[in-house]
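User: Could you walk me through two proteins back to back? I'd like the raw sequence and the structure tokens for each, with a short line separating them so I can tell where one ends and the next begins.

Assistant: Of course. Protein one, sequence then structure:
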Amino acid sequence: MRRAGAGMLVGMLSARVPARWRPNRMSRTLARLRARPGAVIDLTESNPTRVGLDYPPGILDALADESGLVYDPQPRGLAGAREAVARHLDRQGVRVDPSRVALAAGTSEAYSRLFTLVCDPGDEVLVPRPGYPLLDHLTRLDGLTPRPYSLVYHGDWEIDGDALERQVTPRTRALVVVNPNNPTGSFLSPADRALVRDVCRRHGLALIADEVFLRYGGHAGAAGGPTPAPAPPAGRSVVGRMDGVLTFGLGGLSKAVGLPQLKLAWIVVDGPRRGVARALRALDFVSDAYLSVASPVQLAAGRLLEDGDAVARSIAARVRRNRAALGRRVAAQPVHTLLRAGGGWYAVVQVPATRSEESLVLELLQHDRVVVHPGYLYDFPHEAFVVLSLLPEPRRFESGVARVLARASGAAA
């Protein structure tokens, strides 16, 4: 019997996964640095559990509820957990009927369920650019084609309406908005909401509104300017504001209360009554095939969301502090520009395009031991941009930022 060679094995795999795996230069350089003595300042850190934040004592105690020994599978999730999500959103000023909430094990899974719900293989989904690269992977893993639409920056970010319209084809089934966007931090303006509503209505598209960063808003003052007080999410959410459009709002423990390891997310279904009823019945069918959310985390959801509010406040304070420090440093070096943002926990800095973003990022790694993301990772339309997480411990953040700005301006030693 013939043994399968490497080529035959590759042929057995789906075209939806990469045929070859090869780390890029940045990944290889970073791996070598981390294998050597000496600290690396990671300004891409997105994990709130690794940045020195205080979590309330006993926050995980509710996971030990002995009711978790009983398996009671519910496609939409346990009623108590869905009610806890509705209460959590109500505290943010977003009114939700618990019967319209469905639970999933993370927002990535929620996306996949929604793609299964509204698309057939080969269909298309509109996704924002700049945007988080995971969206491309998720659409392709479900056998779909992502079609990018542009966000443009003129002092604030907005959707390019003409570009959005041009991307719609007969195979387009859904439009994704990330509100606020990752990494630009831009919320949909009233004009953008009206544009999205009109496009979805005219073309019969479902709207998927990723609002995982919704509660982190109002912290993004202009470079060097005052930092506004936190703004409540009420009025920022698109849920309940898209008349006539079947809308799916996404959120989860990962960002809402800084607990990414517990893998609980939610889908809020909104829109015309009949469309919502049909969507929920179909979503029950899809979810019943997986039943992926563990009972202990569902039983603990109320306590986690309530106690986690303190974590969210700490995250918001950290983000505002680091954003303000970044603004002051950028203002002192006018060759750089801190782009305005409305929320989220990332910042975008435009730096002089004296060399490629890849060269700058590699120099920062090799000479300054600082990790940043290049703009091209998020499909910025031109160079040169760097994307920074606002989560790191403030002293390390400021030290890293000083090195980034010095290297980008050519002033590094």
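----
Protein two, same layout:
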Amino acid sequence: MAKKVPLRQCVGCGEMKSKKEMLRILKTVEGDIVLDTTGKKNGRGAYLCQSGDCMKKVRKNKGLERSLKVKIPDEIYEKLEREFYENE
């Protein structure tokens, strides 16, 4: 029997993709918003396609704020965008 691939929905475009193809953005227990490169850190996570378009969409449609249930200031988006483009 084939192993089931864990799918996650992108908060930007809404597409379902495998967990490995996506970036995990995390709200830690302390309330910080960070890019989780390992995918294993504790906290509430939201997934995002590895495309600049989805990063722009998620900022516009506030999908990340809904998923993480927290207001996200512009500085955090800018920090995430910098990290995001460094990881490409």
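The mean pLDDT is 87.

Let me know if you want the two compared in more detail.
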